[in-house]
Fold this protein.
Amino acid sequence: MKDKVIVFTHGIDIDGYGCAVLAKLAYSNPEIVYVGNNELDDLLLERWESGELSGYDKVYVTDHCPSESLCQKIDELPEYKELKVKLKVLDHHKDRIKGDYPFVTLEVENKYGAFCGTELFCKDLLEQGLLKLTPAIDDFVEFTRIYDVEWSNPEFEKADKLNNLALVLGREEYVECMTNKLLNNKMFTLSDEENNLIKRFLEEYNRKLKEYVSKVQVVDVDGVKAGYVVSEQLYKNNIIKELRNLPIANEIKFLMIRFTDSDSVSLRSVDSDFDVSAVAKVYGGGGHPFAASFKTANLPKELLELEQE
Ligand SMILES: [Mn+2]
């Protein structure tokens, strides 16, 4: 398709990357903008106000959605009229917006299960006749969906491989690799080389995970026993998962993880009756009863000192 398009896609996981892959299959040279969790409004407005978006025939937002207030503005204000016509938002995240807007398609689930962003974009491109569905594209979209929203699916392990490959290759190379794979193959398979990369990645990952789990120390946080460990964000879900099966889980109410690759401390409950968001609040953060966080700068000094021991 000759149209000049720009795609603002969620840039933090393979669902957002999958949308970039499909854009590259459907359009020649689409501009892809990877967007973090809280950046979309600013990025859209910046590029709109600079006049840049006027140079595109179509503006997609995939696996993500502007805020309610921005959607309202685009819908109602005359200065956004041109953007309103070009914009197409395809998202599957519940609760991001409440209202109905002509440029937003928000589909969370149907009777077959939950949607993902890549799937919604695929449907849209197929309906427009811009993409021809092959078994390879079908599988790629389905694996991405399972990874994103259906963790109990028996095929999850296969789907998880895509995520592992993305972690090994990095975002740009993953998108490149998948685009070429889908362009050149009828069936979706991973090469021996890709499988080996994933295998080596997992070996190293599991080695480090074991190491982190073994380093959890029991500490006292305002009179409550907690586990404390330092790790990369990538390990947070699996550290708590492993920990729940160990004797230390009986000793502690929650786990505190100071991340080395972000300036935040994550709190996860071990005992389901214990509300970690209350602890996070004490340190200037917040979150949910089972998972919360606060800024590393607010971490009690004693805990930082403990790391040196
Ligand atoms: Mn998603």
The chain is about 45% helix and 20% strand. The chain has two domains: 5-190, 214-308.
